[in-house]
Amino acid sequence: MKTKAGKLSKTAKNDMITYGMVIAAYIIVQILVSTGHVSSLVQGLLVPFCTYSIVAVALNLTVGILGELSLGHAGFMCVGAFTSAVFSLACKETLPSVPRFAAALLIGAASAALVGFLVGVPVLRLKGDYLAIVTLAFGEIIKNIINAIYLGVDAEGLHFSMKDALSLGMSEDGLMLIKGAQGVTGAPHDSNFTVGVVLLLITLFIVQHFIRSRTGRAVMAIRDNRIAAESVGINITKYKLIAFTISASLAGVAGVLYAHNLSTLNALPKNFGYNMSILILVFVVLGGIGNMRGSVIAAVLLTLLPEVLRSLNDYRMLIYAVVLIVMMIFNWSPNMIFLRKRVRQRLAAGREAGEEV
Amino acid sequence: MALLEIKNLGISFGGLRAVNAFDISVEKGQLYGLIGPNGAGKTTVFNLLTGVYTPDEGAIFLDGVNLTGKKTIDICRAGIARTFQNIRLFGDMPVLDNVKVGLHNHYPYSTFEGIFRLPRYYRTEKEMTARAYELLRVFGMEEYADHAARNLPYGQQRKLEIARAMATEPKLLLLDEPAAGMNPNETKELMDTIRFVRDHFDMTILLIEHDMKLVSGICEKLTVLNFGEVLAQGGTQEVLNDPEVIAAYLGE
Lengths: 357, 252
What we know:
Number of strands of chain A: 5
Helix content of chain A: over 70%
Largest sheet of chain A: 3 strands, antiparallel
Order of helices and strands of chain B: EEEHEEHEHHHHEHEHEEHH
Distance between the termini of chain A: 30 Å
Strand order of the largest sheet of chain A: 2-1-3
Shape of chain B: globular
Order of helices and strands of chain A: HHHHHHEEEEHHHHEHHHHH
CATH architecture of chain A: Orthogonal Bundle
Number of helices of chain A: 15
Strand content of chain A: 5-15%
Number of helices of chain B: 10
Number of domains of chain B: 2
Distance between the termini of chain B: 37 Å
Radius of gyration of chain A: 22 Å
Structural class of chain B: alpha/beta
CATH topology of chain A: ABC transporter involved in vitamin B12 uptake, BtuC
Oligomer: heterodimer
Number of strands of chain B: 10
Largest interface: A-B, 28 and 43 residues
CATH topology of the largest domain in chain B: Rossmann fold
CATH class of the largest domain in chain B: Alpha Beta
Low-confidence stretches of chain A: 1-6
Radius of gyration of chain B: 19 Å
Structural class of chain A: mainly alpha
Low-confidence stretches of chain B: none
């Protein structure tokens, strides 16, 4: 019975370390900002840190826990970003900032969840490479559709077109919500670092509790052996869809945070294209598949790195690539894993010796 | 009526008649063996029984309930559990969680309750953990609870697969070549485990096996399959001494 209690507290402790790390980082950054030690460049990165951490944790739920490769998470982020930005813009005058952002958050998460569900139904029948390719295509489709949407609101209600702004036929006092490829302009600036950290903590809370629940176990059982999971009465389709939908919805939350940190929101290859999806996957792989804390650390480091190296101009991406390779070796090479284990044992032995004295 | 009744079961894959006119009747509490040469259709029978394949004809009754053409998860709920020829565990998960996945349908709470840790989550998880430990204790595997299933010794992996199957609270347990890849000592231990499961849980067991020492040691009744058809059926000794069975399968 003793080992049982120890085991439970071990996983719980692990989760607590993750929350603690985020909170500690938040406090340190706040102190540094208030004492003026943070450059404006890094201050501008604080919300993106949270955005990318959230979407990395969301993708890790699909890749690490469900065990399926998705290359379309930028697409879910895009859905969350645009639906919430349109809502916030439309209610800019009528709602105060806090309830407006809360509602935008729910709308962004719910719409991304809905799209995740609709995409998941056909896509989750596929496996491995095929699933990756289809999700990749889906992400591109979402981005291109949004680039073609014109949406406006006036006294008569909503106007929608996929052609151009003129064919909306809006009255003079109408408000353009989405202007095709020009995106959404003038959505309120509701997100800040504190909101981002709170959302990151909520995301971690949801994902970590999910993993340690009955549903999470069923999902991991499917990942480890689909046939055996089915033979003990696990509904494969249902649990795959639950995990994928939650993952998409959390990517949508990251999109909401992203959208409310900009004055103009466009769907570009850079922010919602497949480059972004790959970048999110890089966070997940480098941070450790199935390791939520690692995803957060990798997302922050790899978002910070290109900005810090900006002064090196052309050598920037070269160094970025080298750092990626070094991190990969450090995380996954058997020799390094062995070395890390030995260092840890050495430290533990040292601590025990210290306690005896 | 017998616990398991299969009548006139048959399936073809393209032009190959894999199982033809298969009949079997297993009484409650029986230890029943299904033997035959490689490719005779034994595993196909198991796959038909557990809904992996849908039979072309014939009917399957468990405890009087018609299970023909049902889906795998419904058959599991109806009370048939199985193990696999090549062990299929949830390798990256702890041994305890493997058993808990087996308990999945008996200790329900929603995903929402799980994420927000509502009272039912704590209550159900506690009961579930206790039950999983109880099962591990029964199989003498309590000490392995925290180990990743993948890291267990081979014999223990087999045992865990049986424990996980028992967690689904079946009426009938199907074992597909449980002794495959085992040395004589492990096989002996396995025989004890199978007998123990039958006695302790009052379980009905249908098993496929090539190891004749195991078959003659624990099975009470046998069916011999050859080329998808029943070659012989009856008490173990009687079947094993049948000249036809010896010619087709056992050899002189």
